[in-house]
Amino acid sequence: MNPAALDKFLWRTTKSAPINPQTKIIETSKSRVRVRDTEGEKPAVVFFCDPPVMVEHYDDLIKIFSDTFRVVVLELTGCGFSKPKSAKAFEFSEVVLAAEDAIHKLKLGSVVLCGPCICGFVAAELARRGNLNIAGLILIQTPDAANMLAWFERTKKLLRIPYIGQIVVRATSKHLINFWFRYATGKQTNYSDMSTRSLEVISKGGIYSLATILQRWGKGLEDDAVEVPALIFWGKQDRSHAPTDRASSLKHVPNAELIEFEHCGHFPELEDPQEFAKIAKPFMDKCLYT
């Protein structure tokens, strides 16, 4: 049994995803992908969840954006109820394919993709692949590959050790999630509410495959430039990215505008959705309506 297979085994469950009229499971050849989808004929904005963030964290953003756009929130493989069908499905390239397949099946047409942290690499890779009609990218806390790998190295060493990391995350997920939201968010953020939402999903059968992501995704990360309209957001109070060169994000999208939120941490779109929307909405309008 390889480490990814162990992770799949450790997070096995017979529980079903929480019921919500806007939430569904999309079957792809790689994974079962959970999305929240406001549906309708409007141009679409797709937000990827940065684990341990789940679709439940996006309620406020959905309310703000759904008057103008079809809003889709997607849990990548290994997060929440997006569960792999095989151990191989944990690989970065397979996660990209599952997300691409899910978005195809939603029949969204032209989209703006919003990728936070490592999920920004998924969004950028989808734009490079060219199989989706991507009108724009929004990257949030997403550095270049070198800075992302350095971020990996700053995480607990135990989590980066095959097998041991998977067991530690499964056994201490409550502690890790509480610590992460407390450590990475801004001073004014109600991190306990964010943590509670994640833990509720996990208690109902959701998964948090942090160790496998740390161990397996690194080889798939690239930062080749993508020629697409883009915004870059950084929350300056994110202690986990304190040493990160924020300008390195421009390696993904050289012509992007870089916006910094002084009062936010790792999740500026969730910590201050109103302020995020003031900047992101006009950009999305330009990408999708002109």
Automatic annotation (TrEMBL):
The AB hydrolase-1 domain, residue ranges: 65-272
UniProt cross-references to Pfam families, sorted A to Z: Abhydrolase_1
A single MF term (Gene Ontology): hydrolase activity
Descriptive protein name: Alpha/beta hydrolase
UniProt source species: Thalassomonas viridans
Keyword set, alphabetical order: Hydrolase
Cross-referenced SUPFAM superfamilies: alpha/beta-Hydrolases (SSF53474)
Xref: PANTHER family: MONOACYLGLYCEROL LIPASE
Coiled coil start-end: none
Keyword Zinc: no
